[in-house]
Amino acid sequence: MIDAGFLRTDAVVAAQAALAAGVRFFQYRDKQGTRRQVHAAAERLALFLRAADALFLVNDHSDIAAAVDADEVHLGQDDLPLGNARKLLGPDRFIGISTHSVEQATTAEQDGADYIGFGPLYGTATKDAGPVQGLERLSAVRAAVQLPVIAIGGIDAARAAAAVQAGADGVAVISAVLGEDDIGAAARSILLAIGQGEVMRGKRI
Fold it and tell me: How confident is the model at residue 8 (pLDDT cuts 50, 70, 90)?
């Protein structure tokens, strides 16, 4: 995940390093910037990642995702309802939802989400996402839905492996990659830990 609040270099430079390491699924998040700033950064990333044949999603902003022709938007529980986001984005773009319980996960599936994020799996300083959910609840969510499940919150290499073993199809990582001096090496360690060449077990969700 490319989070503007944790970037120590240019967003495209960070994406390029992760891409070279094997990451194919990128999310851009900026909780502090103006909407114009979010749009400008998202547009640059969309152009770069489209040329690299990588998946790109915008966090929170369905309209910006549509404007930059992103592959997806990722919504939180307080963002635009999924049905309205679908009207903006059309049937061909993916929509993911952050969830924090089995009930929210099953509701997201019923509402037509293409995948869900679940967490925070561990404590995290990147956002206030509520109580830690843990691996047992992740496994319960995996059993309750058919959608791809992405583990979020406090993920590093060791925790990424545990999350996949508990049923996650992939992981979302911020500080364990962006916080390192060598973004490529950090990304590779995550991919190796979960035993795959791509973040989504090879799925293009």
Answer: confident
Q: Is there a domain that residue 47 lies in? A: yes
Span 66-97, pLDDT tens digits:
999 999 999 999 999 999 999 999 999 999 99
**Which of the following is catalytic: 44, 50, 101, 127?**
127
Does 29 qualify as catalytic in the annotation? yes
Q: In Å, what is the CA distance from 82 to each residue of 68, 85, 94, 171? A: 19, 5, 11, 22
| Residue 102: inside a domain | yes
- Cα–Cα distance between 54 and 46 in angstroms, integer? 9
Which candidate in 29, 137, 142, 188 is catalytic? 29
Residue 157 CA to residue 191 CA, distance in Å, equals 8
Report residue 9 CA to chain centroid gap: 20
DSSP reduced 3-state for 114? coil
Q: Please tell me the distance from the alpha carbon of residue 60 to that of residue 64, in angstroms, as a whole number.
A: 9
Domain count of the fold of the chain: 1
> Residue 145's domain is classified under what CATH number?
3.20.20.70
Among candidate residues 24, 86, 93, 98, the one labeled active-site is 98
Decide if 127 is catalytic: yes
Look up the domain containing 61 and give its range.
2-193
pLDDT band at 123 (very low <50, low <70, confident <90, very high): confident
Residue 114 lies in a domain: yes
